[in-house]
Amino acid sequence: MIILASTSKYRKKLMADAGYEVTCIAPDYEEKQVPGLHPLDLIAFHSRNKALSVARNHPHDIVIGSDQGLVDGERLLGKPGSVDAACEQLKSLRGHTAILATGVAVVLEGNCVEYQNRAKLHFREDLSDETIRAYVEADMPIDCAGSFMIESRGPRLFSAIECDDPTAIQGLPMMRLNRIIVGLDPKYDLIF
Description:
- The chain is an alpha/beta fold.
- The chain is built from 6 helices and 7 strands.
- It has one domain (2-189): Maf protein, CATH 3.90.950.
- It has helices at 9-17, 39-55, 83-93, 129-139, 166-170, 174-184; strands spanning 2-4, 22-24, 62-72, 75-77, 97-108, 111-123, 158-162.
- Helix 1 links the parallel strand 1 (2-4) and strand 2 (22-24).
- The protein is globular.
């Protein structure tokens, strides 16, 4: 069995679209800041701990933990939680190149395989306050790291995106995750 240590509807859909039947279990883990840890390392730390918190009770199942954050320099931007906060995040990103990091940790029988996809997002310089508010009100990305939804109107916010796996921007790097799952249990290479 494959368990997604997440309640994210985006991650669940990505797994289903790739042909995987998954059980979703909310991790018994509270994300927190860790002093001295770079934001990219913090994302990996959260991914690992989410997976391990669920794997404790499911040691013979493949457990996938993931975390995502937008890193602008040394600043980590998570889910904004409100329209106003989403607008403020996007205003602060105008003209910036930020890294959308998607961390994944896959645990099976005590072994943990980790990976982090890093997408470079070049935010448009010419985004007006009105354009940003119109976008946020149209897509309502208040539960999305960085305040955008790439699978909807979000691409209009960028001048360029550099990423080797577009599914990573949606929530899980499925190309690499598939290789990890098949490496742990080859039967999944036959299940489509």
